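Researcher: I'd like a structural prediction for the single chain below. Treat it as a standalone chain; there are no partners to consider.
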Amino acid sequence: MNRVIESVTLVIICLSIMLICSNSCCAQEEITTTSTTTTVTNESPQSMQVIVNGQPVVVGVGTQVGASGTTSTTTRTTTTVTNNNGIPVQSNCMVSNPQFDDFKRTLSSQTFEDVKVNEATQFMNTHCLASWQVRDIMKIFTFENSRLTFAQKAYPRTSDQANYYLVNEAFEYPTSVNQLSASIGQR
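Model: Treating it as a single chain, here is the predicted structure.
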């Protein structure tokens, strides 16, 4: 019976993963961990009394052989969806277009470059971004170095790394494209 339940559980997990991965915000790797704990409780365990610091303490020393009791099994399955760099990604973390437009307006209203970079980094750390969204954020920055630094930080947290070439449109100089490619391992 337990094997049937484990098999059904694995099928459900596999189907869930397939549904999650059909979503465009899905990362490329899923890690599933299953742990099973079995506890046997007998109705009449053996015990003995021990004196500790002058106080009597009853200590269980085993179970009575052949005694009737109950067995409970707990199975816990955890699935973690991560991108290729092992960073966990929530399946519901994608930014809606209106939310992203609001964020871009807020970011554009900032006067100082360091504030823009800090706010963009903070936003990136709490949301999943697509490559085109990283590119659009980079276009708001004034300085090339800010664009490059943000692109390097955003790559591991981007949901569609295969499309990361899109961020190259935000750079003014080809050397920045080369530096980004070298830093994220693309040639």
